From TrEMBL:
<feature type="domain" description="RRP12 N-terminal HEAT">
    <location>
        <begin position="7"/>
        <end position="288"/>
    </location>
</feature>
<dbReference type="InterPro" id="IPR016024">
    <property type="entry name" value="ARM-type_fold"/>
</dbReference>
<dbReference type="InterPro" id="IPR057860">
    <property type="entry name" value="HEAT_RRP12_N"/>
</dbReference>
<feature type="domain" description="RRP12 HEAT">
    <location>
        <begin position="356"/>
        <end position="659"/>
    </location>
</feature>
<dbReference type="InterPro" id="IPR011989">
    <property type="entry name" value="ARM-like"/>
</dbReference>
<dbReference type="InterPro" id="IPR012978">
    <property type="entry name" value="HEAT_RRP12"/>
</dbReference>
<protein>
    <recommendedName>
        <fullName>Ribosomal RNA-processing protein 12-like conserved domain-containing protein</fullName>
    </recommendedName>
</protein>
<dbReference type="Pfam" id="PF25772">
    <property type="entry name" value="HEAT_RRP12_N"/>
</dbReference>
<comment type="similarity">
    <text>Belongs to the RRP12 family.</text>
</comment>
<dbReference type="Pfam" id="PF08161">
    <property type="entry name" value="RRP12_HEAT"/>
</dbReference>
Length: 1042
């Protein structure tokens, strides 16, 4: 086997301010590769020559010396030539702009061309160096405004651009594109374009022959075996690169010739011709494209007419080119784009049935539908037939033909159509909207047949269901049910189109409440009645389930209904009746009310007010809601008024269900109550709440809360005639849970009533109802900031007067109140409020030391919430308040109790982990904590070491440098203590500092007596991670300790 000659080193960027030979020696002296040895020897020889002639050792001097040696390349062997070319490619980019005189540039180009073109046996790598050098020299040292300056190099790049060797060819084409792109002179562009056109014309006869030969007449390999045939391919690839930069005159000559190569049947040139056509369509002006548009369209249409007889990828490519042509025609205002639109849609649609092309064809079709179909241009009278409308309107005719194509594809499908075809149909539904029922009626019926045939419960029907859902969104449930009525056969009790119910549930939007009451409800009742008549229990159960499904469409019909203000009163009567009679409707009605309230409120408060509470939002189960035009604020305001006018009756009904519910309190009922309370007149809500308080005898006849009594004989006697103690406690919890739902939208009187009930609960019981009471109070504080301000002292006294709860859920709600009160106190900064905040903070710190992980997490989270609220507050004093929080926590560090001190350290660790910049904003923080390492209490030591680990982990390396000395002197004395894993904690801290700050920075602060321990840390840190690196690192620095 013949040994390959050493290839020159690829272009390696060195520094231009350091001697070249020295840089090469530093980089390659350890290499055993032959090409590196030859390169170094060549550089050293040239350096000797330059030194002997007293020339500067600059890149330009090395370049001149190398070119001088190459000028007599016939006397050099291939190895020497390769080394010289490699050196030239390295030094040329280092020469400063205009660092070579133009005359010398021409000489150098001539030398390089002679070596690259005329010399035989030059390797691929060497030729690549020649090409890159030519590109750099033209761009860096030639006058780009003068053709004579760039001509020789440009001609050479063109020759190399069709070289038989791929690496050389690609490199030359890349350089050629950069050079052509840099030309600004029209004269230079003109001459360069002529060269490209001349090459193109030379190959046109062979290209025409190849374009006429069908690929299956002979194998592709045989067709391309002739060198001239391959050269045509390379020429077309070269042309594609230069098309954007050709002069208008030359482009106008090239394009007609290129179109001649388009044939209706695939050839070996088809892909290259398509690529060039695309380059012209994308980059050339109408002056170039215009005269050839018709020929391009006819040729591409002819290619598409053969369909899958041509390779699939090229059919897709041709379709894409037609679409680009369509874009240009439409942008120019030409009327011919409408006729082309049919061809493009037809060809793209024809590819939807084939899995290999469906995805790309789908993208093309969706783009065409969205860009080129405008339903506003289609006007159809009720008395006018679709055929008549199509004849009168080009737009209608386009839609009709597109639907016909899609319908034919659907009819030809075996089984479920693929997701791409269904996706296109969905896009067309969404685009046409309400008029879809005219143009796409047959498609809807076909989709329905498919649903009937395959069954609606199969998992692979999702795309089909979504497609039907798009139809529902487009035409609405009324027209859909006219086309596909849901019915029941009274004789055999079979159901028609019942599969449509879950689709309606997911996709109905913008419908009519009246339609639901007048058509859906009676239909549901008919199913329910039929279920009672049927003898077979299984069929009866199915019919009952279908009835429930139809009733359950209520939330769907409440998504942006068009008649809320007119029909909600009637709907309220139906809902109240259903709440009392049908338990299965409870959730449907609750969700429907939330949807109605939240959607209208979101419109009312959009833009002008972003403070809408998100506590009771219900996500729409239909993504298409975003395509429905939202209400105007005026309409939404009227809708809310209609909803609010019926709140009293609905609240009473929902509250009764909530109170009387035996199996838990459904959250959806509570959320619905909260929604209604948020829009209801506060006095109405207050009456509802007060009536319940009276019903359960929590208030006297005068409206005052009953004073709590001891559970003695008197209490037992009283409970015998009313409720037992256990039942009373249950009602307290339920009422307090209900109260939390009434907070949003409540006025001062109702808030006072709820607050008094909270106080009553705290006074009446030791534990029962406290969790709900804390939650309700936190909701009041969140939603009504005025209450916190006006009752701060009273609130804190109330809370601090209660024992810290043992139950974690209650503790969480209690701390939620603390969170808001502490933030308020710190922002106000009065002595009394700071004292109260200090007391609340004290309880949080104590819980940080709790044995239960869940309780500790509640305390950690509360500290983070407080910190986040202060840092993100819009209050002008929030920065100072944040500092006061830190000061309060550091105040605990001097306490006498290790328990409290360690808790405070843990609290500061949490804050530093969340915001490490605290250490920089409060300079005394870290020294104060590290000074605690002189403490003898192990509990404090463990906490401080934990803080230190957080500190070194979270601080940036540059900031950590400021604390290195203090940290090292603080933690190292504890490295000898193995109890409670203290030694391992110190080790971890040092490991992190070494990785972040470097060995030297840490080692310089290590006292002599701890050097032995530091060696051990190095072993643990590095030997366990990367053996090779560790060995070098460890032994390199071992001498520092000897």
């Amino acid at each position: 086997m013949k040994r390959r000659k050493p290839e020159p080193e690829s272009e390696t960027r060195l520094k231009n301010d350091t001697e070249i030979c020295q840089q090469l020696l530093s980089r390659y002296s350890a290499s055993t590769a032959p090409q590196h040895s030859h390169l170094l020897a060549t550089a050293a020889a040239l350096r000797s020559i330059l030194t002997a002639e007293s020339l500067p050792l600059t890149p330009s001097s090395y370049f001149a010396a190398a070119i001088n040696n190459l000028s007599d390349s016939k006397t050099l062997d291939s190895t020497a030539v390769a080394a010289l070319l490699s050196l030239v490619s390295i030094v040329v980019p280092l020469i400063e702009e205009k660092g070579i005189k133009e005359a010398k540039v021409k000489e150098a180009v001539a030398v390089l061309v002679e070596v690259g073109v005329e010399r035989e046996g030059v390797g691929v790598g060497s030729l690549s160096c020649v090409v890159k050098c030519l590109g750099v020299m033209i761009l860096g040292f030639c006058d780009l405004e003068e053709w004579d300056s760039v001509k020789a190099g440009f001609e050479s790049l063109i020759k190399f651009s069709i070289d038989k060797r791929p690496k050389v060819r690609r490199s030359a084409q890349e350089c050629l594109e950069k050079v052509f792109k840099s030309f600004r002179s029209s004269t230079v562009v003109k001459e360069a374009s002529k060269l490209v056109f001349s090459l193109f014309k030379n190959y046109m006869p062979v290209a025409l022959t190849l374009s006429e030969s069908r690929i299956f007449d002979e194998s592709k390999e045989e067709t391309l075996s002739k060198l001239e045939h391959l050269d045509v391919i390379h020429m077309l690839n070269l042309l594609k690169v230069t098309v954007p930069y050709l002069s208008v005159k030359i482009s106008s000559k090239v394009l007609p010739e290129l179109v001649k190569l388009l044939r209706s049947e695939f050839s070996v040139l088809t892909r290259q011709v398509f690529q060039n056509i695309e380059a012209f369509l994308v980059s050339s002006s109408d002056e170039v494209i215009g005269p050839q548009e018709e020929n391009i369209i006819d040729s591409l249409s002819g290619y598409l007419s053969l369909g899958q007889k041509n390779p699939v990828d090229t059919v897709l490519y041709a379709t894409t080119l037609l679409r680009i042509t369509l874009d240009k025609l439409r942008a120019r205002g030409s009327s011919s784009w409408m006729s082309i639109r049919h061809k493009v849609c037809g060809s793209a649609a024809g590819l939807l049935a084939d899995e290999a092309t469906a995805s790309q064809a789908s993208d093309i079709m969706k783009e065409l539908i969205n860009l080129y179909i405008d339903p506003k241009e289609i006007v159809i009278n009720e008395s006018q037939s679709l055929d008549d409308a199509s004849q009168e309107s080009e737009e209608a005719n386009m839609v009709k033909s597109t639907c016909a194509v899609l319908e034919n594809i659907l009819n030809s499908c075996v089984g479920i159509p693929n997701e791409h075809l269904l996706g296109v149909i969905s896009v067309l539904f969404n685009k046409l909207g309400d008029i879809s029922h005219l143009f796409m009626k047959n498609i809807i019926l076909k989709l329905a047949d498919l649903m009937d045939d395959i069954g609606h419960d199969k998992p692979d029907t999702n795309h089909l269901r979504n497609c039907m859902g798009s139809a529902v969104v487009a035409i609405g449930p009324e027209k859909m049910l006219m086309l596909l009525p849901i019915s029941i056969n009274p004789e055999n009790f079979t159901c028609s189109n019942i599969w449509l119910v879950p689709i309606l549930k997911d996709h109905v939007v913008g419908a009519s409440l009246g339609y639901y009451m007048e058509h859906i409800v009676p239909l549901a009742k008919s199913f329910k009645q039929a279920g009672r008549k049927v003898k077979k229990s299984v069929i009866g159960q199915d019919l009952q389930a279908h009835a429930h499904g139809l009733w359950g469409l209520l939330p769907a019909f409440c998504r942006y209904p068009v008649d809320t203000q007119n029909k909600f009163g009637t709907l309220t009567e139906l809902m109240i009746t259903s709440l009392k009679k049908y338990s299965f409707m409870h959730q449907n009605i609750a969700v429907a009310l939330q949807v109605l309230v939240n959607q209208n409120r979101s419109v009312m408060y959009s833009k002008s007010d972003g403070s809408v509470s998100n506590g009771n939002t219900v996500k729409d189960s239909v993504s298409e809601c975003q395509n429905v035009a939202p209400y105007s604020k005026k309409t939404a305001t009227k809708n809310i008024k209609a909803l609010a006018s019926c709140c009293s009756e609905l609240l009473h009904a929902l509250v009764d269900i909530f109170i009387d519910s035996q199996s838990g309190k459904p959250s959806y009922i509570k959320d619905a109550i909260a929604c209604l309370a948020s829009i209801s007149n506060s006095s109405v809500t207050q009456k509802v709440f007060m009536s319940l308080l009276e019903r359960f005898q929590f208030v006297t006849g005068e409206g005052e809360f009953q004073q709590p009594k001891n559970y003695g004989d008197e209490l037992v006697e009283e409970e015998v005639h009313s409720l037992n103690v256990q039942g009373k406690d249950v009602h307290r919890c339920v009422m307090m849970e209900l109260a939390s739902s009434l907070v949003v939208g409540a006025k001062a009187d109702l808030i006072d009533l709820i607050y008094n009930f909270v106080v009553f609960i705290f006074q009446a019981t030791d534990v029962t109802g406290h969790c709900e009471a804390y939650h309700t109070l936190s909701r009041i504080l969140q939603e009504h900031s005025w209450f916190c301000s006006s009752r701060f002292v009273e609130l804190t006294d109330l809370l601090l007067g209660q024992k810290s709860p043992a139950d974690v859920a209650t503790l969480k709600n209690r701390f939620a109140c603390f969170h808001i009160l502490i933030v308020h106190a710190l922002e106000m900064n009065s002595e009394e409020e700071n004292t109260k905040a200090f007391l609340m903070l004290n309880e949080i710190i104590l819980i940080l030391k709790d044995a239960r992980e869940e309780a500790r997490k509640v305390a950690y989270d509360t500290l983070l919430f407080i910190s986040s609220s202060l840092r993100n507050s819009s209050c002008t004093t929030s920065g100072e308040a944040y500092q006061r929080l830190i000061s309060m926590l550091t105040g605990y560090l001097s306490g006498s109790s290790p328990y409290i001190t360690s808790g405070a350290v843990s609290a500061l660790s949490v804050l530093v982990h969340n915001d490490a910049e605290i250490c920089l904003k409060v300079p005394d923080l870290v020294p104060s904590l590290l000074s605690l390492l002189q403490n003898k209490a192990l509990e404090v030591i463990k906490a401080v070491l934990g803080f230190t680990k957080v500190l070194v982990s979270c601080l940036k390396a540059k900031d950590l440098q400021n604390f290195l000395s203090d940290i090292i002197s603080g933690v190292l004395p504890w490295s000898s203590v193995s109890r409670n894993h203290i030694r391992s904690k110190v080790t971890v801290i040092l490991e992190i500092m070494i990785r972040k700050c470097g060995f030297s920075a840490v080692e310089s602060d290590i006292p002599e007596k701890h050097k032995s321990f530091f060696k051990t840390v190095l072993q643990v840190c590095f030997f366990s991670k990367n053996i090779a690196f560790s060995m070098w690192f460890y032994f390199s620095f071992l001498k520092h300790f000897d």
